[in-house]
Amino acid sequence: MVKPHWDATAYEFESRRTVVFASRGMVATTQPLASEAGLEVMRRGGNAIDAVVAAAAALAIVEPTSNGIGSDAFAIVCKDGKLYGLNASGHSPERLTFEELSRRGLRELPTHGWLPVNVPGAPAAWAALVERFGRLPLKDVLAPAVDLARDGFPVQPVTARNWRRAMETYRERLAGPVHRPFFSLFAPGGEVPGPGDRFRNPDGARTLEAIASSNGRAFYEGEIADAIDAFSRETDGLLAKRDLAAYQPEWVEPLSVRYRDFEVWELPPNGQGIVALMALGALDGIALASMDEAERAHAMIEAIKLAFGVALREVADPRFMRVQPASLLSKEHLAELRAKIGSEAHVPPVERPYYGGTVYLCAADGEGNMVSYIQSNYMGFGSGIVVPGTGVSLQNRGHNFSPDPSHPNALGPRKRPYHTIIPGFLTRAGEPVGPFGVMGGFMQPQGHVQVLVHMLDLARNPQSALDAPRWQWLQGKRVAAEAALGEDVIAKLRARGHEVEVTDDGTPFGRGQIIWRLPNGALAGATEPRADGSIAAW
Questions:
Q1: Cross-strand partners of 431
Q2: Active site residue: 29, 65, 358, 527, which one?
Q3: Reduced to 3 states, what is the DSSP secondary structure of residue 156?
Q4: Which whole-number Å values give the CA distances from 504 to 13, 272, 393, 491, 497, in the listed order?
Q5: Is 18 an active-site residue?
Q6: What is the pLDDT of residues 130-183, one digit of tens each?
Q7: pLDDT band at 1 (very low <50, low <70, confident <90, very high)
Q8: What whole-number distance in Å separates Cα of residue 403 and Cα of residue 117?
Q9: 459 Rama sector, left if φ>0, alpha if ψ -120 to 50, beta otherwise
Q10: E-only strand ranges, 179-296
Q11: In a 3-state reduction of DSSP, which class is residue 269?
Q12: What DSSP line would sit under 421-432, residue for residue?
């Protein structure tokens, strides 16, 4: 593998971060305490897989605005030069049917409450990763997260801002006994934690201990499952203990496309990583580096819209898809998409929601192990349901099911929905380069494309690629853009027909992490300036 062509000292946007280098280990997350938890486990003899699980469990505690013990998860593991994919998204309850929805007087799933809650996959992901690839017992791996939950931690600034905003929304929308435990946990005494305020989740600490001592099964078959089942029955939910007991995460083969002289890897559906792959495959035949910034952004936006146009029609639980995912990445199909990229903004024949609420993290060690990992509730805190006595907030991923019975992603029993969270990985000539990801609902494949174009086309280093101003296609011709993109670029995009909405709020534009292994074995890490991002290095 040739030496990277980027300058390690360059930075853009308003960040004052530089690339971080290390040799023995690295953990990159949105929270300093989570990054340190991962590195602590590595220093105690764990490998990158142990470290990423430790950091993920810690994030479930210290950043509840985006994820929790009741989240879903996906991972790409690089072990001995080979890539392994893990799909730990949960299936819907057995009782989730159109008939049940109709009985309740509904035509589609609501955003909050029990109905959009699927089986959480994160605890099973932690156990599966450590069991197959880790070096330490799960009890040791989860110990830092247990300590953070029991002893408490000071809330970081960006997390505090998101916490306050989310609570304003949840208080307007949620009421009744089903949501009372949620407000008791996350707004104790009616107060929302501010920057530096200490927050504790002792019930979550006990739940993590139960997960650790049972290799995850307490959550799906034991005391935690019993608590979830009881609260669901008490408050008219659909999720039952039998749904939890039937769940297993799935090991899958990652998919890839060639982009420039790299291979970009994503997980197959039900995740939306295939959106990034289709867009990159279409752009691979276009000389982006020779374009000005506005022309390049236009091409990327159009490629993203075309890729979403396919994915939102076809991506679902793979058991129900009408096409084989690999066929969407054929040279012929990618050429068809490329040919549709014109000089003017087009309106795709699909609409989409644009919610988020996710954490992305990655880890690498000195032995060559690397992990790209993503974990999420949805729409911030998720469903607004906390199971009493457990400290577990539940995701609301079922909201991504289609209300159209003829759609492959139609809601139904024991199905996985179209899922937004996607971990990415880079190789070059078959040699591992490293994990990357950008979280944020339907921003995620858009973030993947932008960050990779910055690195692979424009020779920006990983930190500069994360610092660079971003845009996000919203729907139709609507595009949100950071003001730092520049007035000239924005004006040129508008001249092409894009309806650009400028914002200085970094929330809609995702939060990324990158680790790149250099030819000499050194690790180069970058973290997100729009979050409380942190790299722990050894």
A1: 428
A2: 358
A3: coil
A4: 12, 27, 30, 17, 22
A5: no
A6: 999 999 999 999 999 999 999 999 999 999 999 999 999 999 999 999 999 999
A7: very low
A8: 15
A9: left
A10: 198-199, 250-252, 255-259, 262-266
A11: coil
A12: ---EEEEETTEE
